[in-house]
Design goal:
heterodimer, A: 7-stranded mixed β-sheet, B: 104 residues
């Protein structure tokens, strides 16, 4: 079946630095990728939707300059958390779809900003 | 009020029991998803539904568009089914999840 590889699974960074999270579709071409954030004991929150070759569409309240999303190819999307602060610590998850008929989730990245 | 409501929030079952998790939503729908999240955080998409019923192994998902309601059933539950089950509408609205624990 379809596999989405998300990397890294865990990252600890210092406040003020930037962190890049990668989401790769391994055996299919993902025309659309979604990025989510999950706070402890809460459900997922959609941050943005990205289509290959175009700018990401951000949900209300999500800072596009802070959470940079790039979807440069049909198999790779990246989320960069810029100038990270402790409040950015969270679980970030991507999902990918090729035709809107099925979605495959990555395994998630736990970001801790110290 | 949440656009997606799940019940119950927590569920403990004995191995072998039949389990039902419910999801009600208040928004227009193109597709409803049932997701499984294990303690490590990774998420697996179990079903995507827009009508009717789907079955995969011991899992069955149904949806009633008129009543805006979906159910996830697990037959012959097993401890490895222990996880959080999340209902999602249109990849945007998420329930807060049902934490299932199956006891051997």
């Amino acid at each position: 079946g379809a596999v989405v590889s998300q990397h890294p699974s865990r990252v600890i960074c210092k406040s003020g630095t930037s962190v890049k999270i990668e989401c790769r579709s391994l055996d299919f071409q993902a025309t659309t990728m979604f990025w989510y954030r999950q706070f402890p004991k809460q459900s997922l929150m959609l941050m943005a939707t990205s289509n290959e070759g175009s700018k990401a569409t951000y949900e209300q309240g999500v800072e596009k300059d802070k959470f940079l999303i790039n979807h440069a190819s049909l198999t790779l999307s990246t989320l960069t958390v810029t100038s990270a602060h402790p409040e950015d610590s969270s679980f970030y998850i991507c999902s990918a779809s090729t035709d809107g008929n099925g979605y495959t989730f990555g395994s998630g990245t736990r970001l801790t900003v110290v | 009020k949440n656009e997606v409501e799940q019940s119950p929030q927590n569920l403990t079952a004995q191995e072998g029991e039949f389990i039902t998790i419910n999801c009600s939503y208040s928004v227009g729908i193109s597709a409803l998803h049932w997701l499984q999240q294990h303690p490590g955080g990774g998420i697996v998409s179990l079903f995507m539904l827009s009508s009717g019923k789907k079955k995969h192994g011991r899992l069955i998902a149904t949806i009633n568009i008129q009543e805006k309601h979906s159910s996830l059933h697990i037959t012959a539950s097993h401890p490895r089914d222990s996880a959080v089950y999340i209902c999602a509408v249109n990849q945007f609205y998420f329930g807060t999840g049902t934490s299932l624990t199956v006891i051997p």
